[in-house]
Design a protein that fits this description.
The protein is of the alpha+beta class and 329 residues long. The protein is 30% helix and 21% strand. The longest helix has 21 residues, at 308-328. Bound molecules: iron/sulfur cluster.
Length: 329
């Protein structure tokens, strides 16, 4: 492991100043992924600025949104009474996203910034990885691709976005609040992540030194039901092969409100506006759900190792929609 120095920031302004001043300095929060990557030699910062003691933790309810501080833990958010009552698919995504031990340490900001789970990205002995080593190629496209994306990919990278939590957050029009040397700004989560294109090493719109301070999650309409389903090779402590999160309002058999996002298939959290267009004002029937699933997977690009995901993702979404509609019947 490369030597590095460690400093604990006194306040958010000092943390932003320290990181902004040095391209080899970065933030440290829960560290549940970051320290693994440092031990494996994938990341090698010169200095870590610890933000865990800053007042960036906590959940505030406004009546129409919940505001979640960046260093709030996954477990704290999963236990929030408004999340349990109004946003059950966020709670499901959190509980399915990590073990209890990890949920008690991992932060919401860190969850959204977790790096690719691609085995080639995480193995520095592999030369060809455009995300870790820009311009070197992509070992996954010609190698073992199973836990990889089929939507939003490029000829330069097919790495999956691995966060479960980001799926319901994308469906809900969550906003990410950040602080920089120039002041605060707010970014819709659906515009926060960047598909790989020809620069897979640039994963989001954060500029160096910008600090996520909070996220703001709009509550769905009264009467909405939601569900998150994660399909994986084993039942715990595993990333998604496919997942889907949706929130619906069904009245008199018609879908009045629909939010849909997919996981396990996209290079970014995959909000499916196409599926929502199919669902909105349509009858809550199997034919509608099938059409929504077809729309959601339009444009999928597969390799032999990922071809199974197209049908699996459709079935995952259909199961989620059927489950919600069944609860509202
Ligand atoms: Fe690297 Fe992306 Fe290719 Fe994985 S899929 S080897 S992260 S470039």
């Amino acid at each position: 492991m490369r030597p590095f120095s460690y400093v604990r920031a006194a306040d958010a302004g000092e943390a932003v100043a320290l990181v902004s001043a040095d391209p080899d300095t970065t933030y440290l929060a829960g560290g549940t992924t970051q320290l693994d990557l440092m031990k494996d030699g994938v990341l090698g910062p010169d200095r870590l600025v610890d933000i865990t003691r800053l007042p960036l933790s906590g959940i505030t309810h406004t009546g129409t949104t919940i505001r979640v501080g960046a260093t709030t833990t996954m477990e704290e958010l999963a236990a929030d009474p408004v999340v349990i009552e109004r946003l059950p698919f966020i709670r499901e995504a959190l509980l399915l996203g990590a073990s209890t031990q990890l949920r008690n340490l991992a932060t919401i900001g860190g969850n959204l910034l977790q790096r690719a789970r691609c085995r080639y990205f995480r193995d520095p002995t592999v030369e060809a990885c455009n995300k870790r080593n820009p311009g070197s190629g992509c070992a996954a496209i010609t190698g073992f691709a199973r836990m990889h994306a089929i939507l939003g990919t490029s000829d330069h990278c097919i790495a999956l976005h691995a966060s479960d939590l980001a799926i319901p957050l994308a469906a809900l029009d969550t906003v990410i609040h950040v602080q920089s040397m120039d002041g605060p700004r707010s970014i819709p989560l659906t515009e926060f992540y960047l598909p790989p294109g020809d620069t897979p090493h640039v994963e989001n719109v954060l500029r160096h030194g910008e600090l996520i301070t909070a996220i703001e999650v709009p509550l769905p309409p009264e009467g909405a039901r939601s569900h998150y389903l994660k399909v994986r090779d084993r039942v715990s402590y595993e990333f998604a092969l496919t997942s889907a999160g949706a929130a619906l309002v069904v009245e008199d058999g018609l879908i009045r409100h629909a939010r849909v996002a997919l996981g396990g298939v996209g290079t970014v959290p995959w909000r499916s506006w196409d599926a929502e267009d199919v669902l909105r004002d349509a009858p809550a029937t199997g034919d509608t759900f099938q059409a929504a699933a077809e729309a959601a997977l339009t444009g999928a690009r597969t390799l032999p190792g990922t071809a199974f995901k197209v049908e699996l993702a459709k079935r995952t979404l259909i199961r989620v929609l059927e489950t919600i509609a069944g609860e509202q019947a």
